[in-house]
Amino acid sequence: MRKKCQICGDEFEAKSNRAMYCEYCRTKAQVERNRLYAQKRSEGKAKRIGSVQICPFCKQEYTVRSGSQQCCENCRQKQRYQRQKAEAEKYKKEHYDRLSVYVPKGKSSELKAAAAGLGMSLNEYILAALDKFVSSDDK
Ligand SMILES: [Zn+2]
Ligand SMILES: [Zn+2]
Q: If 103 and its partner were Cys, which of 1, 21, 107, 138 is the partner (CB 3.0–4.6 Å)?
């Protein structure tokens, strides 16, 4: 049967009664539907840049600055800091043993001050002192 295409107005040979578009327009319409569908889906997943979202951690509003951003800038930095801290802890656990020592009262702040004077942490200072002690013992 001959029908009139709803898009371009051309007559076309319809195979079914429900056909509304000529073959050319039908393909085009399908392509357009697919495109819109894909666009909608990607917008749902990746939040639109510049849109305001609620941070899942602190429940504050934030403005999306990149497609992969999932929380506010504050929480992002907090998370990064926490990740780094956890990594540092892990490294310490794997490469160092913890040694507790008792020092006379007031000695620890004295040592800390001495270490700070050399731009070291107390830990580095004690390790350096031990190294020195051991190596001078060798001679
Ligand atoms: Zn058409
Ligand atoms: Zn947040």
A: 107
